[in-house]
Amino acid sequence: MTSLIDIKGVRHAYKTANGPLPVLDGLNLSVPEGGFCAVVGPSGCGKSTLTRLVAGLMKPDEGEVTLHGEPVRGPRSTVGMAFQNPVLLEWRSILKNVMLPLEIVPGGLKGKAAEDRARYLLSLVGLEGFEDKRPSELSGGMRQRASLCRALVHQPEVLILDEPFGALDAFTREDLWQTMHEVKAKEPFTGVLITHDLRESIFLGDQVVVLSGRPARTQYVMEISRDKAPSLDDLYTPIAAERLNTLRHQIEIAQGRVTEEASA
Ligand SMILES: Nc1ncnc2c1ncn2[C@@H]1O[C@H](COP(=O)(O)OP(=O)(O)OP(=O)(O)O)[C@@H](O)[C@H]1O
């Protein structure tokens, strides 16, 4: 697999009233085509900033973010995003919400083809029959499913998920993890997932990147090879426990609660 997303030596500081706030300091990350990279790290370390750089919503002070080797210089229609808050438009039906990017992205599907595509995605995530409902008529998990369809409707090659399941209860979240694997099998994309949930990171990611405390650098990378989609049972195996323990420990180092030397 060739690398689709490459982040090399990225440094970034926000300009604030109190002077520059260094947020990223030597970030390196490489996601192969079709890969799913889960990013974890202490609160406020710069995870969302990383997604903004990949999405082209801002440029780094130093270093480079490339997609297929081409520097990211601005927003691209080949990137889809979903956030913790689905932000669906209440005056549009679920179907019309999902179709929205096709009205905005140049060259997107139009008319019946657009509607068919949106209906297909909604059926893929189990929302068949809810196309004409308004967002407020759906549960939080269903709204997040619709938001996922909206992020995928224009067939982006990169999907950025910034804590999309963070506000959901544990059972709904686990349902959505499984849905994500089902969707990815049918709608291939290269994914970057920001999460605070270590179980989620090892269930969805084939690479888990731990960022250090702010300003963030790449502290630790865990590769997870799998030849089929996992089941929830896989989260209760010794190997899962070992992975979670390693990641939890890396987070403690990132938080400065233990030192690498002390843990060696
Ligand atoms: N536009 C901005 N201007 C100034 N400071 C900002 C801006 N956006 C984010 N920050 C600050 O940069 C730091 C990193 O923010 P960011 O949202 O990237 O972190 P995060 O790891 O995603 O946070 P969390 O884990 O809480 O979701 C935080 O201290 C935040 O307050």
Could you walk me through the main structural features you see in this protein, from its secondary elements to its overall organization?
The chain is α/β, with parallel strands linked by helices. It folds into two domains: 1-73 and 159-164 and 190-264, 3-Layer(aba) Sandwich (Rossmann fold), CATH 3.40.50; 79-155, no CATH class. The protein is built from eight helices and ten strands. The protein has helices at residues 47-54, 94-104, 111-124, 140-152, 170-186, 198-204, 238-254, 260-263, and strands at 3-16, 19-32, 36-40, 62-67, 70-71, 79-83, 158-162, 190-194, 207-211, 218-223. A six-stranded mixed β-sheet has the order 6-7-8-3-9-10, sandwiched between helices. A hairpin with a 2-residue loop joins strand 1 (3-16) and strand 2. Helix 2 packs across helix 3 (111-124). It is globular, with a radius of gyration of 19 Å. The two termini are 33 Å apart. 36% of the residues are buried. The mean pLDDT is 91. Bound molecules: adenosine-5'-triphosphate (ATP).
